[in-house]
From TrEMBL:
Residues 131-162 are annotated as: Disordered. PANTHER family: GLUTAMATE CARBOXYPEPTIDASE 2 (PTHR10404:SF36), N-ACETYLATED-ALPHA-LINKED ACIDIC DIPEPTIDASE (PTHR10404). Keywords: Glycoprotein, Membrane, Transmembrane, Transmembrane helix. The chain crosses the membrane at residues 12-31. This is Uncharacterized protein. InterPro entries: Peptidase_M28B (IPR039373). The lineage of its organism: Eukaryota, Metazoa, Chordata, Craniata, Vertebrata. It comes from Xenoophorus captivus. It comes from the Eukaryota.
Length: 162
């Protein structure tokens, strides 16, 4: 008896919640747009066109070149310099509030004397395939600190077994 009344109560609540949902959905679906909403849409469209006309692709290209000239791994001095430069530029652009929040980097940095690599090992322990430990550089960026790094260079040494 008690179990049946509990089940009936749950069914009743499910029906009520579903009914409220359907009524709210119907009101939202059938509501007509007001004239003010249409005018707001036209104004927003006008502002969007003005904004798009202000975008200067040459400046975007210049910023991208400036911030990708040197490698900047997270947590390095070069990365901090870029962050400070971006912060200064945003302040110069007139943003209300610009702040840098310090954070800890939990990466193992590359060891140039013993670079990491990825290998496929057979069942006896022989390496069948290995990734390159270095990359060829056509532009000389390997001579710079943290230059020419691969993603596996930030992983710790370890063995994955099946």
């Amino acid at each position: 008896m008690k179990r049946e009344s509990r089940l009936v109560r749950w069914i009743w609540w499910a029906v009520v919640v579903t009914a409220f949902f359907l009524v709210g959905f119907s009101i939202g679906w059938l509501a007509k747009r007001s004239n003010a909403t249409t005018n707001n849409h036209k104004a927003l469209s006008k502002y969007l066109k003005e904004f798009m006309n202000e975008i200067q692709t040459d400046q975007i290209r210049e910023h991208l070149r400036k911030f990708t000239r040197l490698p900047h791994l997270a947590g390095t001095e070069q990365n901090l310099k870029y962050a400070q430069q971006i912060m200064k530029e945003w302040q110069d652009f007139g943003l209300d509030s610009v702040e840098m929040v310090p954070y800890d980097i939990l990466l193992s940095y590359p060891n140039k004397s013993q670079p990491n690599y990825i290998s496929i090992v057979d069942h006896i322990g022989n390496e069948e395939e290995t990734s390159s430990r270095t990359r060829l550089s056509l532009s000389g960026h390997l001579q710079r600190p943290h230059g020419g790094l691969r993603e596996q260079s930030r992983d710790t040494n370890g063995t994955k077994k099946h």
